[in-house]
Amino acid sequence: MTLVRAGLAPTDPVAIPGKNPSLAVSFFRKTSELALRLVWTEGPILGAGDVRVTLLAPWIVNNSDGRARVEHCADVMEGFTLAAEFRHKSWFSEKARESTLAMERERGFVNVVVDEPNTTANSIPAVWEVTNQGLALVRLHGRNHETWNIKGAASASSRFNYDHTDDELGELAGPIGEIAKRVERTHAVFNNNYEDQGQRNARAHMHILGQTAMQP
């Protein structure tokens, strides 16, 4: 039986363990230039110190330059497992979907499945595909269309102000359970971090998953 871990998303990038400080500084400088952001480097929620989650900024689109930047990120972080969250719809358009998944499989990327508003260019659909047999990662950002591109918010949590209903969590449990059967570990991470929404939703989600959920 494959267990599913539900948890909350950390927010601050930290140093890269196992790498010397100069390389860490160099990498963060490079990721700034490439509009990439390394979010997880310790993996306390992922339960594995060798997994890194990389968010690709919305202006990294699916073209030759964008693919070169993604490949460079993989080269720089060779030896780590990278989970890539694409944030421009061009990566998973009907035309590009299979080639993006093929690139992820070739480089060993974990395909990050997202649940988010899917109405603008800086959002992607949920793509329930496995590209690394070791891990599946689902990030739930909430479904607040009105705040997805909010300007001038006091904090990032305002953007993800969304409280999932039990029905929505029940609907998500199905595909999460199915994808969990195909990998060694599955992590569902709640990024709707306004007040205690994420904590409550994660707890409710674990209850819905029942025995397949990993207890904290």
TrEMBL record:
InterPro entries: DUF72, UPF0759_sf. This is Uncharacterized protein YecE (DUF72 family). It comes from Caballeronia udeis.
